[in-house]
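thought: fold this chain, then report.
action: predict
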Amino acid sequence: MSLRLHAPVVLPCDPSCAVLRDAVVDVVDGRIAFVGPVSEAPDFSGEVRQLSGILLPGLVNTHAHSPMTVLRGLGSDLPLLRWLQEAMWPNEAQMTPADIRTGMLLGAVEMLRHGVTTSAEMYFHGPELTSAVLDAGSRVVFGGAILDVPGMDWKSQTDEISSWIDSDGLRFGPGERVELAYGPHSAYTLSAPQLTAVAVEARARGALFMVHVAESPFEDEAARAEFGSVPALMKASDVLGGRVLSAHSVHLSDDDIALYASYGVGVAHCPGSNTKLASGIARVPEMLAAGVSVGLGTDGPASNDDLDLFEEARLAGLLARVSRMDATVLGAAQALLMATRGGADALGRDDIGALEAGRWGDVVHIAADDPAFATGLDAPDAQLLANLVWGSGSRRVTDVWVAGDHVVAGGESTRVDRQEAQAEVAAVARRLRSA
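observation:
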């Protein structure tokens, strides 16, 4: 399969966030073969599609619990720990594997319609969750949730992921759409020795270790009392050194940030969830200045409550500016890169997050027929990026390709009946409310 996408503007999301004019993206056998001005493009014999707006890489959601679409709106005015203990965990205990599949299917469709082609999911019942992702045609890094709480066996949860990786490999599915990872929940639901044991398994397989860190100022009091901080706990417990993703990471010290930079720890910044739960504002400018790879995450659709990564990019920029009282901090280009290339870097992936030869052909088209682009696609580069990030966001995402497959057309899924998926989520939600 060969596909050439030709548009007035292409944003490859290279490190400089270049703006290419009158350019093409060639996808051959699912991977990008060429990106550049049409005047420099090689001869091409495949399908050519002329598009009217902007092409950019599929966005990378570095932290989500998307099956929570069935729980959206529950406990919406509670702080983090009460929200977890009173609203989420009791309801999740009632969810079946089929419920998780139902919630993930709608979540995947919602994300694709917002231009999100990859999500890193920490959740349960991986076979059902990944089946839903494959049906929708998106991409997932599935981190099997691991907790030591009543009713859950952290060791069997860990062994389940290890056995799955040993059986099917780290990545599999059409276009390598599924990657398996470990999802130890946090340092307050697992002991330091347990975190060490999970990290050993992850490092042995080159797998990602994704964990909640310092999300609220109260959750890690015990870790701070003994180790100084959760990052310090992870260093002392030999958790660092492999592929590690630290979700939220709101309350980090200078020493914590320096530690992350030295060990190559990625951070999933979730500004929407963090503000809704009043968890605080992460020190993103300081992380970026230290060389930490920072991506964006939505967190779950019951704590955000949407799955729109463009909104996270906008919030990330606005919160960084107001926290520093500096309007020059975290510009539109940097916010866009956090949603794309930065997210891939945080996950330890070099095959997604940018339009570059050799990466997967995950491409998003944003139509220019919108007030946000009324000043024209021929506006100066900085103005065009500002109009995309601050003005347009996801509302004009019309087409999405994953590994060259057209999975969103005209703003709707080509593979899933969205109305039917919504009805199935409604049925699960009604049953959970009556339980």
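thought: worth noting. The chain has a mean pLDDT of 97.
final: tokens above.
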